[in-house]
Amino acid sequence: MQISADLEKAEGMLSASLMMGTPANKDILRHSGLLTEKGETAAENDLIIALEADSEKALDGVLNTIDSRFEPSLRDEGNAGFYPASIDSALGALDANFALISVPGEYAARETAIALDRGLNVMIFSDNVSIDDEVNLKNRARLKDLLLMGPDCGTAIINGVPLGFANRVQRGDIGLVAASGSGLQEVTVNICKQGCGITHAIGTGGRDISKQVGAATLMKGIDILDEDGNTKVMVILSKPPHPEVLKKILKRLENVSKPVVACFLGSREKKKMKGVVFTDTLEEAAVAASCLSRGEKIVLPEFTVNGIEDLILRTKEKTEKSGKYIRGLYAGGTLCDEAIDILRKYGIMAYSNAGSEEKYKLSDPDKSREHSLIDMGDDTYTRGKPHPMIDLTARNKRIALEAKQDQVGAILFDIVLGYGANADPAQAMRGTLESIKGEKIMIASVCGTNRDIQDYSKQVKTLEDCGVIVLPTNAQAARFAARIIK
């Protein structure tokens, strides 16, 4: 995906896609007009490189780039042992107890079953795995007393090792279990900013809290963290679980031996349980866990920026002369959900392709109306294309489009740093942001740390140079947008 995104930026390139030759991928290329007769003959283990350019010269230049990106690893015979052909051959070369499965969804269940049968804990990065396969695999993992994260588990930190889209955070005594990728990132980086650290951050996959799956991985994660001597505080993150599943989770939490912070994002129910602190936002979950880690009283401020009220008043004056609607464009799905929920608490109902209220679902996510917050990491936008954490082209176009609307007063967005994400996302947005500087209020948050390769402070400075108001957390960014528009 990163190579595809890089190639499309080359002069003369119209489109570029590098995909395995599975039936589903060929169907995507076919509908995009990029599948040739030769591409049709590709087998499932073949890599299809589909390119469209405005000239032969442009095409030749891109082909040379592709050669340089692929050939070194193929020619490096000294590293041949690190590219095994199967799980069994990998186990023959490595002493491993963990497998990360990232293959097309239709093959992920088979590979996961093999890994579990070999006694490996598994993280399934792949999506498009059936829920029946998920249930069966998690039952198999439970019988073998193994951890199975996923399917569609995009983020985890195990024993301090970041996996998938994860950030570089310090070690500490707070452990997390989350049915959310970007939500897990937001909480871990904000725990780090509070001066605390992480033992494990266990992802479950979003469907884990459904009635069918029954929180199988989440319950296993609670057991792991409860038994872990290094974990002093536990954090549970998810959207509202199925009611029967929620009862099951809460019953288990009654017997946890250490303090727990629970954030069921968007839940309307106010819970009270001994030993469990319930929070409404990802930011509050991070702050509460950090306070418990330090043995301090929990304080949950609305904002943590000096002079914030003056900034709100100055910014509000500008929006009164422009539009009255907020348009949010998000890379993190859970961050989008959190922002929707926060706006709702200020009496602002936002339309979206995310969220749980059918009344405010956009029938066409490409067409905003009134207040609209869009999850651009949704399958609608990423099928056959890089995720907006990797390639910001589609989101840049959408921001520019929304900024042309007279009734739009504020553009709200996130940037997510970490492994796998764009190497310099703020710079990739610079041209778009500078083109609308002074025309619309731009509000953002950056999910990351200064230890990430992208460098949190560098990203914030670039955004501020482009006229963006950057708040410390996604929650504060949403509150700021609500305050200036309300």
Keywords:
five-stranded parallel β-sheet; 486 residues; alpha/beta; globular; six-stranded parallel β-sheet; single chain; Rossmann fold; 18 helices
CATH structural fold name of the largest domain: Rossmann fold
CATH architecture of the largest domain: 3-Layer(aba) Sandwich
Give me the Rg, rounded.
Answer: 23 Å
Main β-sheet description: 6 strands, parallel
Strand line-up in the sheet with most strands? 14-15-13-16-17-18
Structure description:
Helix content is 40%, strand content 19%. The chain is an alpha/beta fold and 486 residues long. It folds into 4 domains: 2-80, no CATH class; 84-152, NAD(P)-binding Rossmann-like Domain (Rossmann fold, 3-Layer(aba) Sandwich), CATH 3.40.50; 156-300, Rossmann fold (3-Layer(aba) Sandwich); 308-485, Rossmann fold (3-Layer(aba) Sandwich), CATH 3.40.50.261. Strands 14-15-13-16-17-18 form a 6-stranded parallel β-sheet, with helices on both faces. The chain has a 5-stranded parallel β-sheet with strand order 9-8-10-11-12, sandwiched between helices. A 3-stranded parallel β-sheet has the order 3-4-5. β8, α8 and β9 form a beta-alpha-beta unit. The longest helix is centred in the N-terminal third of the chain and has 20 residues, at 56-75. It is globular and about 65 Å long.
